[in-house]
Amino acid sequence: GGGMAGILTAYYLQKAGLRTVLLEAARVGSGQTGRTTAKITVQHGPIYSTLLRSFGAKAAGQYASIQRRAIEAFAELIGEEGIACDFQRLPAYLYTADPAGVTALRQEAEAAARAGIDAVFTKETALPLPVKGAVRFADQAQFHPLRFLEAVASSLTVYENTRVQKVKGGLLHTNGGSVRAQYVVFACHYPFLNLPGYYFMRMHQSRGYVLALEGASQLDGVYLGVDREGFSFRNSGERLLLGGGNHRTGENSAGGKYEELRKKAAALWPQSREIACWSAQDCMTMDGLPYIGPYSPSEPSWYVATGFAKWGMTNSMAAAILLRDQITGRENPDGDIFSPQRFTPGASAKTFLEDGMHAVRDLSRRIFSPPKALLEELPPGHGGVVEYDGEKVGVYKNEEGELFMVSVKCPHLGCQLEWNPDEKSWDCPCHGSRFDYTGRLLDNPAQSSLSPV
């Protein structure tokens, strides 16, 4: 995979003396790396109090250690290679506008400090909204991820538009030929092989939305709200990126996520102007920690990096460092908590049950649930599951009345797809595969496009 995790892993392995080849299904940076808000920070939501409670002080310290090391590795690499990517040091904040959230943020500040992070509770922020409390993480960073990626990738052997279709041992079959390797690293966002590893049973995907604004505030750092309707803020030059509207992939049939952000922008900065909008997708593991390390005991030469849970910048760098060390035999004490073979029933039980219920419901929906409308009832500019010749099909009708009809069976494991009106896409609520309204594959783990009707 040619995103941040794949490029960095290949770079550090090559620096360690290994000959590396990177295979990318589309173009370098065309996946989630091209859509990230690119916060380089140890501040990953209220994670340290959760780690302390669920895993203990040692695990919280390990997590903090590798994330701090990742920030410094970015700074060192950018300096050594002379990469012009708008790298900037600045603080990161967690904030709440709800008085009920203050206690949790005070606990997060204490837990982060115990883990060795320079974090303090404060009520002072640069946000143009009433904040009841915040945690300030000093000396974090932000940058332009695609400028960085272009520079790092330039020294690597990369094959774009080369989709890996099958892997057996060290032999990788692609649409353009085969590659044989001693080690294989799956850094393609969501592992597309169901067996071994069973990652489809251990992760779901989540979407979030972003507006780029001109004429909004210049802030003193990057911000993330911890409330149910919390928002993300960061500047990019003269512009401001406003994020939010998170939901499980495949569960946005009502739409309106961009409108929520536009209303917030109008309330905070009436003079601002929207110049772009986009969305991104993240893999969420059962216990909240990434899977970085050996893919499966049955394939000792395979490795994986996935499940970054919306914090793909530092976790990509952490994955690159840890995988380099594992493959080259270096000692690294911070990698234990990321093992894909870990067993964490206490931290995983609730998510395991929720994901299982979603999978059962969404698999059975295709068989038992009735179509939602008749074809002639679908208004222009809308999509949905409709009845056509006695079958359920996915239909998008554009403003001119032209119809685009596809199968609503996800080619990954057969779940029924749902229409996402904000992106005009068909999204899988089971495992997060996505397709545009013509059926073209957008996001894995599915490996093929939808069948036209």
Note down, in words, how this protein is organized.
With 453 residues, the protein is of the alpha+beta class. 26% of the residues lie in helices and 30% in strands. The chain contains eight helices and 25 strands. The strands form six sheets. Strands 2, 3, 4, 5, 11, 12, 13, 14 and 15 form a nine-stranded mixed β-sheet that branches. A four-stranded mixed β-sheet has the order 18-19-20-21, with no helix packed on it. Strand 16 (291-296) and strand 17 form a beta hairpin. The longest helix is centred in the first third of the chain and has 25 residues, at 57-81. It is globular, with a radius of gyration of 22 Å. It starts with a helix and ends in a 10-residue tail after the last strand. The model has no long low-confidence stretch (mean pLDDT 92).
Helix content: 25-40%
Query: How many distinct beta strands?
Result: 25
Mean pLDDT: 92
Q: What characterizes the major β-sheet? A: 9 strands, mixed
Radius of gyration: 22 Å
User: What distance separates the N and C termini?
Assistant: 31 Å
**Count of DSSP-assigned helices:** 8
Q: Report strand %.
A: 25-35%
Q: Give unreliable regions as ranges.
A: none
Provide the structure class.
alpha+beta
* Cα shape: globular
